[in-house]
Amino acid sequence: MMSPKPQPISAAVRKMLKEARVARLATLDAKRRPHIVPVCFAYDGKLFYTAVDLKPKRVPPERLARLQNIRAVSSVALLIDKYEEDWTQLWYVLIRGKASLIPKSARKERAWAIRKLKAKYSQYALGMLADDAAIIRIAPERTTSWGKF
Fold first, then answer.
1. Which region holds residue 44: left if phi is over 0, alpha if psi is between -120 and 50, else beta?
2. Could you tell me the pLDDT band of residue 5, with boundaries at 50, 70 and 90?
3. What are the C-alpha distances in Å from 19 to residues 83, 119, 134?
4. Predicted local distance difference test score (pLDDT) of residue 28
5. For the chain, what percentages of helix, strand and coil (3-state, to nearest 5) are there?
6. CA Rg value for the chain
7. Listing from the earlier edge strand, what are the strands of the sheet with 75-82?
8. By C-alpha distance, which of 110, 29, 40, 44 is closest to 78?
9. Which one of 42, 44, 98, 148 has the largest count of C-beta atoms within 10 Å of its C-beta?
10. By three-state DSSP, how is residue 83 classified?
11. CA-to-CA distance for 20 and 79, rounded, in angstroms?
12. Which phi and psi (to 5°) does residue 66 adopt?
């Protein structure tokens, strides 16, 4: 079965994605149980990237649930939102798509993703993102957005 053609993301939504600092990545394990974690992300106009950074983890990076889940079930959701007490300022963007781990052999794409993430997050530029970090690529298939754009 072919994947549906990705929906274009409007310029107003792309601006919000550029400014947004955190997202929530939802994955499914092999038994289709959900798992969700906050992540930093970069969007290049076509694909989303997130990485396993050097913040302390409870398990070694290769055993992280999000990575094991993506290996088992590639369907993911990425939720980027903004909450304000002034509810006229609320918005969200929900990306549903396919995730994959960028292999170490894909040096050019890995370097591109790491550059994008380091450009967005000073913590990454200052050493919190290793050059050999696990990088997740999310190819959007369906985008839903709501709010003040």
1. alpha
2. low
3. 14, 12, 24
4. 98
5. 30, 35, 35
6. 15
7. 34-39, 23-28, 75-82, 91-101, 135-147, 48-51, 42-43
8. 40
9. 42
10. coil
11. 11
12. -60, -40
Helix (H) or strand (E) holding 14: helix 11-19
How many other CB atoms sit within 10 Å of the CB of residue 81? Answer: 17
CB proximity list for 80: less than 8 A, separation 6 or greater: 16, 17, 20, 22, 23, 41, 92, 93, 95
Q: How confident is the model at residue 7 (pLDDT cuts 50, 70, 90)?
A: low
- What's residue 130's pLDDT? 94
Contact 60, 79 (CB under 8 A): no
The C-alpha atoms of residue 43 and residue 74 are separated, in whole angstroms, by 18
3-state secondary structure (DSSP) of residue 95: strand
In sequence order, the 6+-apart residues with CB closer than 8 A to the CB of 140 are 6, 7, 9, 47, 48, 95, 96, 97
The set of residues, in sequence order, having a beta carbon less than 8 Å from that of 98 and lying 6+ positions away, is: 3, 74, 75, 76, 138, 139, 141
Write out the two tokens for 79: 């939720």
Tokens of 62: 């290769």
